[in-house]
Amino acid sequence: MAWAVKVVQEAINSPLCIDSPNPQTIGSGLAACRDKENAWANSITLEKSRIDGILPLVKEYNCSVVALCMEKDSIPKTAEGRVEAAKKLVDIVNNYGIPLQNLYLDPLIEPISIQTDRGLVCLQTIKGIKSALPGIKTVICLSAISYGLPKRRLINRVYLPLLMYEAIDAIILDPLDSKLMMNLKAGDTLLDRDEYCMRYIGADRKGELEA
Questions:
Q1: In the Cβ-directed half-sphere of 156, how many Cα atoms lie within 13 Å?
Q2: Fewer CB under 10 Å: which end of the chain, C or N?
Q3: Is 54 in the same domain as 133?
Q4: Distance between CA atoms of 56 and 93, rounded to whole angstroms?
Q5: What is the 3-state secondary structure (H, E, C) of 122-177?
Q6: Are residues 115 and 208 in the same domain?
Q7: In terms of domains, do 105 and 36 share one?
Q8: Count of CB atoms situated within 10 Å of the CB of 55
Q9: Residue 119: which CATH number?
Q10: 28 and 56: one domain?
Q11: Separation CA 23–CA 60 (nearest Å)
Q12: Which pLDDT tens digit goes with each residue over 119-165?
């Protein structure tokens, strides 16, 4: 992991998200990051070993952490169950003395190819978190919604504005999908997050709104 972080940092100057099922591997990645405070540790659950393995690293490096809205070994099937898990995670992170602005809750997207209501449950979870835990940020991995389906990019592009409408704070997505990025810029403008549409106009002038 330390080698991978070094190689990536030689090519780009963006904050990194260090993802591994092994807390020691996450620790190695964070230690190798140039910009530790803007790095992310991905992720904790309510499982004690992950909490005890990762949160001390988050506190040491003052970085962000992703917390999955799931129980110790299962994903709640309802939005209400995921919001309850979110509340427990917020309490745990707060009790560790980690600033809550460093926490991102992942409401968990499951593939609609398995069960077609999973996209709705995720949206309901985001809405529930925003209501029950004001000020707590959320993050999602967009491409999980389309797993197992044909024309996956189409599903991702349509789901993105729905997430934005529910005020998702951060999205892991494919920046090389030009149509998806166009939707992102147009969505920000339509949701009044782009003062005087200046970013949208700027993107057009750069040719970034061409299909």
A1: 26
A2: C
A3: yes
A4: 10
A5: HHHHHHHHHHHCCCCEEEEEHHHHHCCCCCHHHHHHHHHHHHHHCCCCEEECCCCC
A6: no
A7: yes
A8: 21
A9: 3.20.20.20
A10: yes
A11: 14
A12: 999 999 999 999 999 999 999 999 999 999 999 999 999 999 999 99
| Same domain, residue pair 24 and 11 | yes
Token pair for 142 = 């967009």
- Residue 65 shares a structural domain with residue 87: yes
SS3 103: strand
Range list of H helices, the chain: 2-11, 23-32, 48-61, 79-95, 118-132, 152-165, 178-190, 198-205
132, 203: one domain: no
| C-beta neighbour count of 161 within 10 angstroms | 15
**pLDDT tens profile 76-108:** 999 999 999 999 999 999 999 999 999 999 999
Q: Are strands 170-172 and 137-141 parallel, antiparallel or unpaired?
A: parallel
Domain ranges, residue 211: 176-211
Tokens of residue 121, six digits: 């449950």
- The CA distances from residue 93 to 22, 25, 35, 51, 82, in Å, are 19, 20, 22, 9, 16
* 54 vs 29: CA distance, rounded Å: 12
- Coil/strand/helix, residue 44: strand
Q: Which residue has the tokens 């998702």?
A: 168
The structural domain count of the chain equals 2
The pLDDT, as a whole number, for residue 72 is 83
pTM of the model: 0.94
